[in-house]
Input
Amino acid sequence: MRRRIYIPFAFLLIFISEISYSQDYSFNYDRLIFAEFQYINDSSFHLTIKPFSKNEAVLNNYDSLKFKNSFLKHLFNNNLFIVHRKKANIVINPIIQYTNTVSLNSSEFYSDKRIGFRLSTAIKNKLNFSGNLFYVHANLPEFQIYSTDSFQILYHYGYLNPITSNNFSFVSFTGELSYHPSDFISFHIGNGKHFFGNGYRSLFLSDNSSSYPYFKTTADVWKIKYIWLIAKLKDFELLTNELSDTLYNKAVFLHYLSVNLTKRFNFNFFEAIISNPYDETGNKNAYEAAYFNPVIFYRPVEFYSGTSDNSLMGVGINLRIFKSAFIYSQFLLDDLVISSLKDGSGWWGNKFGLQLGIKTYNTLNIKDLFFRQEFNLIRPYTYSHGYSVSENSVSNLNYGHYHQNLAHPSGANIAEAISQLLYYKGRFSAALKFTFSEKGIDTDSVSYGGDIYKAYNLRPADYGIKFLQGNVSIHKSFDLKFSYIINPNYHLAVNTGVFYRSISDTSEKPKNLFIYFGLSTNVFNDYSDFQH
Output
């Protein structure tokens, strides 16, 4: 029987979740890479924990453009609105996006329009608040509106109601309140997301899903940084072999430790457990009290308590091999029996993922040229979970939120390669990215381990499980983007580019070629380079 636990911040998490309709990000991937350029030589900086806090990364060190006209000078160089006082300050900047996309295959026209503002405040450098409020009206291509018909979920943004065709209109509010009693510890409560890792993808926790209400404690001492995170999730009830349309609550309890052992070597440890407040009969009860412990190992607690909760563990290693070149890796463990791995029996319960990559800054001695090559392999059934025999049990304890994966956006049973180039020259940047992946696709009645929203009880066998089993789908994407930053304070930029996507799955158009152009503050990561 689970022990009941009630803590004050739980009520605030519930409140935040009710007023947050969808998702936005307070960081953009290109901006984070630019920040990394500044801190690769700082052995006390932890590159694997994102977003970087405001006092860690100053992203606005571009040269000011000189204008005689005061309006142009303000437009290109300054915050929209700022108030500085001795003990407090307030900064308000716009959130703008007006991106137009044209399909060269069908001559269809799409648009993504967003308008709003970002508010940041600080009081005595102890109490900080940052919030984003914006309105969205979008008309999106078919592959970007995955699962909207069945579950009214827009990928990256969460639950929308109502939805009409591929046109969406909604309001989003996200934010975080943080308290910093000292330089070594801070407390955060908000609605947003996090990313753990040095890669383009993360096998631990990524920013591709919808935002979630969370409470977080950060301890930063010497060359050690520790994160304790509790997040409230919402998902659909799993009924034997299909999902219902009923949303229910679950939570993830997470620990993340990053240690810069030397200037060249970083080690990090990750663990998480996914639970819901229901007992074995499906009656609402409470979360296991021990899960709220900020330092305890979760796996022994789950085993001792006898629950059927879902636990994950992982380790990451980052090695600096040259002055500006890093090898990084992640090993994610869902479950593993070494003996069955050695005998080659193909036991279904060997669930794990592996990431290996290299990234270089000032590549080939070219200043501000970034390069990445990354490989991801995830075994079938990783991140997924089973269902209970009880008719009343709410048991979908997979590693997901709002029908989206919390780690790799493609789930499991996948092999992926990613190549990336990014070049900065003043306010101009050019980015080139190519992804290639193979994924084993499930059928309606059988889970081959690719879809984490199919219970692993639906597997075809206990043994003989192979990597990339099922119907193999091949996905390719190519993205070439050019940008010019108008205002670096809120990263307002003009963007244009070409995006190509092909997939062998016949459920959608096999090939798509798009040209896009527009204006954006570039605070969002809207991943389109993966297969579902």
Summary: The first helix runs from residue 8 to 19.
